[in-house]
Give the backbone structure.
Amino acid sequence: GENVEQHPSTLSVQEGDSAVIKCTYSDSASNYFPWYKQELGKRPQLIIDIRSNVGEKKDQRIAVTLNKTAKHFSLHITETQPEDSAVYFCAATIRLGDKFYFGSGTKLNVKP
Amino acid sequence: DVKVTQSSRYLVKRTGEKVFLECVQDMDHENMFWYRQDPGLGLRLIYFSYDVKMKEKGDIPEGYSVSREKKERFSLILESASTNQTSMYLCASTQGNLVGDEQFFGPGTRLTVL
């Protein structure tokens, strides 16, 4: 089955700096890659996603890139703010309506 | 707006007790999932269901069972709770008929087994 690895497990940046979180996946059939943000004490929520026919997607300060050849995808957050502090999870899925395979999570701390 | 609710936010049980965790979604979603979340291990899938009375094992089904008698409700059962089942349990649902559809999560149940 699919295996998703996520790095780093913790990331600390200064407010205004950029943050990058990387994930690799094992199954080349995976075709959808969402990113979830979980603030302390709250439920995970989708923040951005990318499909395998697209190389990059942006939404304001957040972007996701996908390299299908290398089987990795990354989350980029620019101009970080304290409210970006949270745990971020990447995921991959192979089939329509199928289960997600989640990474182990990255705890991002943005220092004011 | 999709709403996924879980029966309890916090639960304390004793070893050997039978524990029921309930999840309800109100958007007629086809698929429902149960995860446990532990520090450093991310979200691990316990069971999922893509239709009423249908279930499939996830990555860590041992010690758990599930029930889906109605489309909106998905129950996680710990037949005989053990201390290593102390964890945060998250339920999620997806529409199920679109590739890559979003998983909507419940607020979670923090279970402590003494």
Summary: Chain B touches chain A at residues 4, 30-31, 33, 35, 40-45, 48, 50, 56, 58, 90, 94, 96-103, 105-108 (CB under 8 Å). Chain B has a mean pLDDT of 93.
